[in-house]
Automatic annotation (TrEMBL):
Organism annotation: Clostridium thailandense
Protein name: Sulfurtransferase-like selenium metabolism protein YedF
InterPro entries: Se_metab_YedF, Sulphur_relay_DsrE/F-like, TusA-like
Domain UPF0033 intervals: 5-29
Domain of life, per lineage: Bacteria
Protein family according to the UniProt entry: Belongs to the sulfur carrier protein TusA family.
Length: 192
């Protein structure tokens, strides 16, 4: 197969990084990325679509073949509005009493969902992923933010670590490469 990017067995975020390196090296063209798990398939497809590339996915024998085409005019879309990214790395806010911390985080997310100035991206990592799962006291606020157009991203490695991937109730599963790209391309990043 011509222009094959073999990412079988690679851990997050390596499939996206390998794909990006290839497409950064060409003006236009096509390649097929091969991955062996659904998370990598989704992450590579999101990378392609986020850059305006066309993307076709086929599943054969427990492998995903993602054929990506880059045209000469493809590039990331830009916006005149300032981008704010908020990274939530804990299910509590601040240090001290855990009950108070949980109350503060719930209050913060509610106030954020009612705000006029919304972030472009809300990233949950480490224990922060516990806020986006079934049964979380914060789900209503996070769902409201999602409905208002905020991109909700949850660290796949973190969900796996806590055994919560099947419990995710809002947003999408992402990888560290995408998290780094979102933070680096943001005009302002706030970490809680």
């Amino acid at each position: 197969m011509k222009n094959l990017i073999d990412c079988k067995g690679l851990k997050c975020p390596q499939p996206v990084i390998n794909t990006k390196k290839y497409f950064d090296s060409i003006q236009e063209g096509q390649a097929t990325v091969v991955v062996d798990n659904e998370v990598s398939k989704n992450n590579v497809a999101k990378f392609a679509e986020g850059n305006g590339f066309s993307c076709n996915i086929e599943e054969k024998e427990n492998l995903y073949y993602i054929t990506i085409t880059k045209g000469a005019s493809c590039k990331l879309m830009s916006s005149d509005t300032k981008k704010l990214t908020i990274v939530i790395s804990n299910n509590r806010m601040g240090l001290g009493d855990d009950t108070l911390g949980a109350t503060l985080m719930k209050s913060y997310l509610y106030a954020l969902s009612e705000s006029e100035n919304l972030p472009s991206d809300l990233i949950f990592l480490n224990a922060g992923v516990k806020l986006a799962i079934k049964g979380s006291d914060c789900l209503d606020s996070i769902n409201k933010l999602s409905e208002k157009g905020v991109n909700i991203l949850n660290c796949g490695t973190c969900l796996d670590f806590y055994g919560l991937k099947e419990e995710l109730a809002v947003g999408e599963i992402t990888n560290m490469y995408t998290i780094v790209e979102k933070m680096n391309s943001s005009d302002n990043t706030i970490k809680l």
